[in-house]
Each structure stands twice: as C-alpha cells, then as structure tokens.
Design brief:
- The chain contains 22 helices and no strands.
- By secondary structure, the chain is mostly helical.
- The protein has three domains: 194 residues, MFS general substrate transporter like domains (Growth Hormone, Chain: A, Up-down Bundle); 57 residues; 243 residues, Growth Hormone, Chain: A (Up-down Bundle).
- α9 runs antiparallel to α15 and α17 crosses α19.
- The radius of gyration is 24 Å and the shape is globular.
- The C terminus is likely disordered.
Length: 521
Amino acid sequence: MADTQPPQRNSSGEFPPLQGAQLGMLTVAVALATFMEVLDTTIVNVSVPAIAGSLGVSPSEGTWTVSSYSLAAAIMQPLTGWIGRRVGEVRTFVTSMVLFVLFSALCGFATSMTMLVAARLIQGLVSGPMVAIAQALLLRNFPPQKRGMAMGIWAMVVITAPICGPILGGWITDNLSWPWLFYINVPIGLVGALATWNILKHRESQRLVVPIDVTGLTLLVVGVGCLQYMLDNGNEMDWFESPRIITTAIISAIALIYLVIWELTDKHPVLDLHLFNERNFLVGTAAISLGYFAFFGVNVVFPIWLQTNLGYTASDAGLAMAPIGLFALVIAPVVGRNIHRLNLRVLASLAFFIFSICMVWVATLNEQASFAQLSSPRLWQGIGIPMFFLPLNAILMSHIKPNELAAASGLSNFMRTLAGSISTAMSIFIWNRRGDIHHAVLSEHVRSDSPGWQHFHGVLSAGGMTDPQALSVTNLIVSQQASTLAANDLYWLFAIIFMALIPLVWLARPPFVNRGAVGGH
C-alpha cells in the first residue's frame, strides 16, 4: 500500500527508511526487476541456434542477439548516476522497467534478425540503469541496521539469475518457442514497475539538473562500442590479422584515452571518474572486476567444453553448472544479515581461496569424469560466491555519499560488465591457442616409430579400419585431449588470478562504515 501522507525528508535530505509490509513489497519488486534484467544476459545464449534457424541466418549472425544487448547495457551502466540525478532514481527505475517490457515484447514479435537485433539493442539501452538503481533504492529505503540484509537479497538475485538463464532458456526453447524467452518479461516487469511506483512515488531522490556531457557521452559510445565489436569478432577474424579489428582497436583506444582525460576535467562528467579517488572504491572495484573476469571465464569455457567434448546438450550443460547456486542461495542471506559483524577482508580472501581451490579441482578432471565429478566443484564454489560479491560491494560502497550511490553503483557495474566481456573473448582465445599448442605436441607422438601409436593403430586396424579412417579417429581423439588440456591450463590461470587477488583486498582501509549504504564492520 502507498503512504497516505507523503513522507518528509530529514535534515540530510533523505527520507526515513521503509518498514513492515511496504519494505517487503519493495524488496520483492526490486528483486523481480533485477532478476529479469540479469536473466536476459544469459537466457538467450543456449537458444542462438534455434533463433538463427527460425529467422534464416547463420548461428554466427545469431550471436548478435547476445552481443547487441550486452553492448548497449554496458554503455548505459556508467550513465546511471547522471540519469538518476537528472530524472530521479525512482522515475528512472520505473521508466526503465516499462520500456524493458515494451522492447521485450518487440523482441518476441521480431520477424527478421535485423528487427530482433534492433529491439535487443534498445532493450539493453533501457535496461542499463536497472540493476545499479535497484541497489541504490534498496540502500536508500532499508533501515541502516538491515542494509546488509538488503545487499544479501540483491546479491542472491544477481548470483542466481545467470545460473537460471541457460536452464530456463533451454527448456523454453525446447518446449515452447524462442519468442517466449522475451514474453516472460512482460508480466514480471509490469508487476514490478507498478509495485515500485506505488510504494516510492512520494519518495523520489533529489533531482539535480546538470548539462548533458555530449562529448563524454560520444567518446563513451564510440570507445566502448568499438571495444565490444573487437571483442565479439576478434576470434572469428583472427584478431590483429584483420584490418577491421585493427581499425576498431585503434579507434577504441583513442576514444577511451580521450574519455578519461575529458571526464577528469569536465565540470559535469557523464562518467564520474573522481570516485576512484576514494581508496576503498578503487580497491573494491578492481577486486570485483578482476575476480569477475576469472569467474565469468569459467562460465564461458566450461559449458562449451561439456558440449563439444562430452556431447552434453545445452540443457545438460546448464544443469552441470547449476549446483553453484545451491550453497549461494543459503549463505547469501546469512552473510548479508551479519555483514556488519564480519571482517569483510577476511570474507573476500576466503572467497578467493575457495575459488582458487575449486579451479585447481576442475583442472584435474578430464572427459572421463562423470556428471557428479564435474558438478561437484561447482557446488562447493557456491560457498564462496556470497563472500565474494557481498563484502566487496560493501567495501567499495563503504565511503560513498548517499547522493553518489547510483553513480558509484553504475560505474562499478560497468567495470564488472566490461571485465566479463573481455573475459569472454580472452578465455576463448587462450583456450583455442593453447589447444593448438597441445594438439601439435600430442600429434608428434603419432608416428610410425612410436610404440603407443603402433599399438593403437593395431587395435584400430583389427577393428576393420583403413589407415585414413584410423588417422581420422586418432585426430579426433587428439583434438579432444588437446581441448581438455587447454581448458585445464585456463583453470590453472584463473586459480592464480584468484590467489593474487587476496593481497589486493587487504589494501582496503577500514572502518567499512557506509555513510548511506551498508552497515560497516
């Protein structure tokens, strides 16, 4: 129910926290919106072949349904603070949800790939501010002593949505049709928007009319757009052997360098880089971005490896990844509720240690591993997820002022999203390159004077295979082994990254008392 009397601001210009049923309804509404937006980053991935076939294009063209969304969302995330200050955080959030619903429906109605990509692009643009504003709204409206719980709920949604995406996407595509990937957003978004507006329409954040930073916005769009294009197409175009990739890389580098210079000197920057002057924000954002780089890389390579080497279906691969959410769902609310009592740096360090151990565990597996063996490391990795997201978010927000919450959340989410995009391209590149190296090394043992090859060739010949057939089978086995060894190399790299992040966390400076966000340690 809405307030019968409009609430009054206190001396600091903030409204008193919500209580009771209103707080519960707001939490559900914001959680639904966050879940919906984050889910759309992964729900389409497993359905690209079906979408491409339905619209008469190649699977490689179909991947633009994924990259166009992530590109637009990444561009909009750092603009969250500016939009929230100019329009108001409540209006921004509700408008974003309504527009998201509209363009989700248009995605489902698409009759061509061009129409679908255009709708996905705009869907990404309007969804960009949602997650960051959702975090800011929870922090503003929860009582100080319960803000840790609010972040626990928020993190739990952010954690579980990408896990549900591949499973739900595969089921919908197999049992309904791909347009329902987008239609399901309509009722969820409308309910969330109506509930949020009903509760917060009289609790709008203070608005500040500032000039539009046209130069900064242009540099951001060009720089991030070219970077995303390079990352999306680098592997297919053989990276810097392609003039197009070289051109986009140069344009991106120039635009982003000038963006940094411009935003540091402009009076009303669209991207507030001065937030990095705050030590805890810098350390927390760096740790969560680099950690997400390794975390996201595993989520990209692991399901592809399962499908190409072990013959898993997309749904089976999603199920093998799903256990990571089990412990996370249980632990996240507990950590969030008690975060003000816990040592945040110890928690984050423990999370990185768990991640590293699990990476080493996965690196010891091969294509002979059972489903239980493959999913077990994912299960235990879930213990570390709440201890990764929650403490680092609390650390990076610990000294941020209330009027900077949206800007700080938007900038940190932008860095995390960008790290995920870079991780996708770099993980696939390293995996392919290491696979080529392992294939060459293993192939050296396939020669006439090799006892192993003589024995294996004899077995194949006894089975009725000709020499060309035997070589073809051998090459397939060598390729599978090379792919597995390359994936293991990547997991070892991620294990090293996670361990290296532990000392970085300890550069954060206590006390972790947030002036308008999470209760501190």
